[in-house]
Amino acid sequence: MDNLKLPESLSLQLRGFQRKLRAIESVTAAAAAFCMVAGAFSFLYLSDRLWDTPVILRIILFLCGFVPLLYLIFYTIHHVFMKRRDFKTLSVLVQKHHRKLGDSLLGVVELAENKDLSENVSKELCSAAITNIAEKSQSMDFCEAISRKGLRRFAVWSFAILAVVVCMLIFTRPAFGNALIRWLNPLSSVERYTFVKFDGIPQSLNVPHGEEFEIKCVLDSSSTVRPENIKFRCGMEPAKTVTVAKDSALLRISGQTKPVDLKIWSGDFRKTVKIIPLHRPVLLNLEAAVKLPEYTGRKDEKVKLSGKTFQLLEGSQYSFEGKIDRDIKSAELVDASGKTNPLRTQGSSFFTEQQKAVASEKNVLTWLDSLGMRPLHPFEYSVVPEKDQEPFTECPKLPLYSAMLADETIIIQVTAEDDYGVAELGASYSSSDPKIETKIYGTASMMLAKGAADKQKLEAEFMFCPALLKIEEKTLVTVCSTAKDYFPSRTTIYSKPYRIYILSLQEHAKLVEEELESIMAKIEDLVWREEENLEKNKNISKLSEEEMKNDETSEKISEQENSEKMNAEDLEKLSEKAVKMLEEALKNKEFPAKTIKEWAKMLDTINQVSKNDMKNVEKSLKNAQSESKRSEQMKKAVKEQQELLEKLKELMKKMDESLNNLTMENFVSRLKKEAENEKAISSKLAEIMKTSVGMDQNTLPEKIRNEITDQKSKQEQIRKIVKNIQDDLLGFFSRTRIKKYQDVSDEMEKEKIQKKLEDTVETIAKNQTAKGISSTKEIAAKLEKWADDLGKKDNKQAGGGGEGGGEMKEIDPEILIGLMRLLQQEQELREQTRNLDENREKMKDYGEKSVGLSEKQMGMRNDLGGLKKKAADFPKLIQLMDQTGKAMTDAGALLFKPQTDQQTIGAETEVIELLAASMQNASEMSEGSGEGSEMMSMLMQMMMGGQGGMRPGGFKGSISSNAANTKSGGETYKPNLPEGKPERTAGASTKALPEEYKDAIETYFNRVNSIDKKNRK
Prior knowledge:
By secondary structure, this protein is of the alpha+beta class.
């Protein structure tokens, strides 16, 4: 059976419905797609006005716009064009709107499409039904079945969005284009467009740690909006507002110590700056490479700059190398003229070019590190070229003013310093008249050490012995250290002058005498205090039993005990001081050996009183503090104190007698010394007469005139000294009432000695040599006579008697004291030999000095011969002296060669050992005398203790040991007059000396008393 077909009219209606539906759906889809796309874009546009839309949100908006669009396109193509609706589907859609048709339209379509109808179904009926439905449909508009709500809704939205987009395009074209690019390419780095634009704001900023910083915001010329202010917030701090003036604003942000975000906004402008606080770059090191002038002979130096001033030698060249704590991006030097010079950099270092040393101020070094940080304060410095200064040289341990004996030896240290090397170190000395320093007797200089360009300090030492250098007593020696550096054409530089007064033996003896008198005066004061204590103790012992038991009495006894203890300590100190004086006296041949022995005995007594008698009184007073034994012990203390006072008073008498004898010896020595000086003038006048006889005074050669003037000055000096002696004799007589002193003084006045001396001065000045010779001989004879008169033991006050003849023959004290002196001299000679050998390469006069030491050794052998004659009754001692003399001869012969090596020093050591043995033997024979033996033994031990490596100038008790000894160090010399100067006036007067030298010799023994006990050991 043939298939049924839909009527043409119905088919046309359905096809028209299909086309209309497809068109409406397509338009609706397009409108929806437009809304989605335009909406997403518009949202991004609006978002960019409020903030910088993040990339993630821009991606989401991009997807929101294009994913639905793609879906709609796919859906439309699939459902509208690829999978078209059939008539059945269309019938269903039509029937939903035209309900009159019911399901008939769908049935007709199904009948027409059904190819296999059942046999029971009538074709005609089906065809009639189809025709009927087709006719009914003629009056219906199938397109009414299409819903237009979605189309209208999306159309409205589309037009609205389109209007907005068009407005954005018209009025904000740059913002529109910027938003479109950012939307279409959400991953791009294109910054959002803002109507307000500020330049100069970085994404991140390194700022100084903890310091306030600034950011300048400049309004861009393309900014379409000109805001009045700008706001910012740093971290959690409150927001701040800054006025925009002249298209810029300066943001001041407080110091930050941790990384923080800085938010800046104005209108639609938004900016977040990452703030990173960093410590400023620090200059770790700045060194200058200095090229010194060629004359210095030194290599380039590295000098570290630590201050604002860079000092360097004139003629030098320099460059800088600096290092900071981070890598350097750039560095520059702004010189004093304001010129900026870029510097070479490498890593964390910068380098300047080499330049000459020219004075300049306010040179500035600055740098920028790799993080963009600059220093808080650039390094500012000044260049100060300095002249090459003279070397500084001195004798560091030698006082400016000092005194010593002629036969003493000191080691003088000399030093020199120069920043650019000491070339040579030496010393010079000159001897002159202490009253007229311009009157020079002699000069000498020596080179002590060679330096080098890199030797900034040189040290050396030299031996100084006036006797060895032929410098006479009562002479002023001026010592200077000398130095040379490498500066071209610079002459030798001298230190400040150090003046040494050479004491005569008489002056030295007088000083010892005055010190002993001072000790005696202090002992006398102690005796007076002891008498006071005795009276107080007697008063306490007379108290009743009840008063004895009082606490007040106990306190008084305790005070008495303390007072006695202090007196004992004071007496011990005075004894120690006196021992030092005896040791000093041993150096002086003019000091009587008898006096030394007498004082040794007296010091034994003092030691016994202080260590035994006074301790017993102290012990009794301590026991008296017990109530049960108080009365008994007080009586015992009084008795013991009376006994020790008797001993002290007896001791005072002996001291006074000894000092009187010493004064007499001093007068004798002084008179004989001036007699010798007169004889010396007489001999010199005889020599002058041989060469000037017959000559007119006005035509005398200059040399002879100078010699006559010199002898005149010496004669004038003798006149003054004799006048002082005469005055001292009268003063001594007025105190002691010993008649012979008055007799001699009266005889000097009767002989008109002062007038004769004055006449002799005039005679010499007139070159009347024959008369001068006669006068000087006459004066010398009278001086010797008066010395002999004083030396006679016929005065009533002398007392003291002899020493008594015991059963055992006592050795002459001159022998023991003489041996002690020889031992001291030999020790000194050995040290002189050692020093001479150490410096032999530096000394041009090595041979001459060695021969001088030989002469000194042989002179000591002669002194030993004199002692040997006095020891004729002591065979064993004679034998030891013979051995000592032979050893002295051997040592003298070696020195004469000249030879100062270990062999010579060994020979001198043998002499020292033999002298020590001789002293020991003499001491053993002297011990039979009892008193003083302990003190003499102590003096011997002190002398023998000096054998162990003692340096010259280090002898115990010598001024040089503290003032000029280089090894032990010394106190700075300070004039200090001794307290309580005694009334005695005998001895060599120092009145004529310059004040500073008077102070020097008067403090001679103050220095002795301050020697450390360790040095004694």
